[in-house]
Amino acid sequence: MAPSLLPDRYVFAGPEAAAAADRAIATVREAEGLSLILPVEVAAEFGAPSGPIMRQITLNVTSALDGIGLTAAVADALTREGIACNVVAGLNHDHVFVPEEDADRALSALEALSRDAGEPTAIRPATEADNAEIAAILMPVFRAGDTYTVDPDISEADALAYWTGGERQVFVAERDGRVLGTYYLVRNQKGGGSHVANAGFATHSDARGKGLARAMLAHAEDAARQTGFRAMQFNFVVASNTRAVTTWERAGYVTAGRLPEAFRHPEHGYVDALVMMKRL
Q: Are 3 and 63 in contact (CB under 8 A)?
């Protein structure tokens, strides 16, 4: 995307500054009157509000007006950093307006998003040769004790047995030849419930927030469909794991049930667990 942070400072103004329309960088006609994005000094001339002050980040990639996904990816990256954003689409580029105090962090987040977008993810079935790298992903996750119902003091051998045992199909996700994620796919129940899939996901700390979980989820759904599953169900999503909950919701999963205080979180105490499901 080659994002660039421009030096000027802006405010969003209303009809009181309508006479400055020819000096605005963008205007929108709304039912309430004209809205304008004005340089701070121009807004001051016309008695417009002095804040919040915004900075402009231009995405220097040509963005088609009928393109899909860029705005969502930008908003998601900034949301993960707790940064508000307002996106204005021009004919050639998208322009992101963020609070002045967050501008440098926003630029860093979008630069990281741009770099990560260029890293292809290869997802393949796991082999025994991947065990060490899978364990390196699983052990910190299990030790933290804040997402899985697994004893934090589990041994590496038992962790691998838990992840790869039974009927589970196990996959790994690679970037630049390095295993950075893993997931398993298995039927959620036997007999009359065997048409619904279940899956578990784990991502290396170096790859979190970089779209790897979403890539593995999409792959898992495709694999489930090809296997004949008609739905995917997550039986125990810890409600405080907001990153996972948001990822699943954005992929179309709905909360089918809530288990009050079913999980004892090491920091938050007793928190709810969610049953989430999606038809495939």
A: no
First to last CA, the chain: 32
* 170, containing H or E segment: strand 169-175
Tokens of 114: 């741009």
Question: DSSP 3-state assignment of 21?
Answer: helix
pLDDT tens for each residue of 99-121: 999 999 999 989 888 776 655 67
Quote the pTM value: 0.62
Q: What is the pLDDT of residue 201?
A: 97
| Cα–Cα distance, 121 to 21 (Å, whole number) | 46
104/3 Cα distance (integer angstroms): 11
Q: Is 34 helix (H, G, I), strand (E, B) or coil?
A: strand
- Say if residues 48 and 13 touch (Cβ distance below 8 Å): yes
Task: Give every residue of the chain whose pLDDT is below 70, as ranges.
Answer: 1, 62-68, 116-120
Q: Which 8-state DSSP code applies to residue 145?
A: T
